[in-house]
Each structure stands twice: as C-alpha cells, then as structure tokens.
Amino acid sequence: MRKLNLEWMSLFLLIMVVAATGSIFSPGSAAANEKINAAVAAGFIQPFQEIASVFEQQNGVKIEVTFSSAGKFYAQIINGAPYDIFLSADRERPDLLYGKTLCIKPFVYAVGEVVLWSSKKEFCTSENWRAALKQEGIKRIAIANPQIAVYAASAKKALEDAGLWNDIAPKFVNTEDLAQVFQYAVLGAVDAGFINLFQAHSENGRKGCYYEMKEAPIAVHSACVLKNAKNIELANRFAAFLNSPDAEKIKKKYGYKQTSEKD
Q: How far is residue 144's CA from residue 4's CA, in Å, rounded to a whole number?
C-alpha cells in the first residue's frame, strides 16, 4: 500500500510539473506577462488607445501609456525616464533623441492638420477661419504652448502669416497640451480652440464645428524606440504595427493622412 501511495504521489508531482511547464512555455503566455511603456503626445489619445487595443488583442501584450506634451516627454527622456517608445507630435524631438544616441532611428507614424474648432455651431457661419476670429463677441480662444505643442506652433505660423497673431493674442487661454484645449472648448469655457483634425472627428468633436486651416503647416508625427527599452524586440514589433494596415485604418478614421503622404 505504501508503494502504491508513493507511485500515486510521484504521478501527481509529475502532472503538476508538466502543467506548470506547459503554462510557462505555452504560446503567448510569456507575452501576457510583458508590457510596453509608451510616452504619447496628448493630441493622439483616442487613435492610440484604439491602436493599442488591437495590438494587445493580437499579441497578448499590455501597453501602459502616459499622455502629455512632446516637450515634456523629451525633457523626461533625456533625464532617464523609463519609457520603451516615444510617439511625438513632431519630427524635431525624436530626431534630437536620435542625435543623442538615446533612441533607434525615428519613423513617421501619422500626418495631421490643425483646425479651429468650437462647440458653438453659430461660430462656423463665417467665410473662413480668419473671418471667424474677427467675429464680435469672441473673447476667449484656447491654444496650447507653441514651444512644446506642434499643432499650436502650426496655428501660430498661420496666424502670423495672416497678420492676426498680435490682434488675437490678448484673447488666448494658454494650455499645456491639445487635450486641455479641446476640453476647454467642449465645456464652453472658451469660444473656440486650435486643435487637430482628429479631435474634430471624435464623438464630442462632431457635436461642434470647425474651420480647416489650409494655410497652416501640416504636422508630421514621428516616433522612436528608446535604447533603454526593457524589451527592444517587443517595442520594435509595436513600432512596426503603428504603420500596419490595421493601424492606418484607425488613423484614417480620425482624419489623419496616410504616412506615405508626408512628403
């Protein structure tokens, strides 16, 4: 009887070892315990969330994301912030990181446009955005910091070229990033705000109206995988996915051009 009990005990232990080993080495289980830490420009929130969700479903990899301005992320990264991939709203900062050998060669992942948006439909009865800004009763206009937000810089260039920057500046409500600009405009805390086209295509964006600003420079979004990434291979895989057909479909839905249109 003792021998039989020992045999059953040995068989039980063998089953447990096989089960444990199988769970460790089964396809996808290793990836389930891995994650990517992404630093993403605030203007790309909704498209990124959808793209990340599809990638997670297909690969079983968790993506932890922080949204803020590209300028803030750049400062954090050069000071050793532990991100794996950086999605900027411009080309400049990833290029600067590449020059400092802090990241792998940058790549373009999206091309966007700045628009002038308002939650008030009557705001969009003027001939164009320049005339709209001259409407009586327009007292507060939200804009992000042009020094750290590419869409704000694009809007500033268009305003300067139109000779309106100095006239409009006293009405500006300055924010940290595009997300705050859009929030203020949605809540009606400002009469209008300079945002990107994708925000105007969002659920809240469709409730308002906007003017295209064709005179403003397009915003070319660049990204790079950081050299201190905990899992370079995994970060590179996600980087490639950002320009995959699945990701391009999502970006197009939010008003972004194909990355091939950048030139």
A: 76
Contact 258, 248 (CB under 8 A): yes
Look at residue 177 in the predicted model and tell me its pLDDT. 85
- Cβ 29 vs Cβ 23: under 8 Å: yes
CB atoms within 10 A of CB 16: 10
Cβ contact 191:139 at 8 Å: yes
Confidence class for position 33, pLDDT limits 50, 70, 90: low
Are both 34-112+219-261 and 114-212 of the same fold?
yes
Q: Quick check: 32 and 60 in contact, CB under 8 A?
A: yes
Q: What's domain 114-212's superfamily in CATH?
A: Periplasmic binding protein-like II (3.40.190.10)
Q: Which of 42, 185, 44 is nearest to 116 (CA)?
A: 185
Which CATH topology does 34-112+219-261 take?
D-Maltodextrin-Binding Protein; domain 2 (3.40.190)
Residue 163 zone, left/alpha/beta (φ > 0; ψ -120 to 50; rest): left
Question: pTM here?
Answer: 0.71
Choice between 261 and 247, residue whose per-residue pLDDT is larger: 247
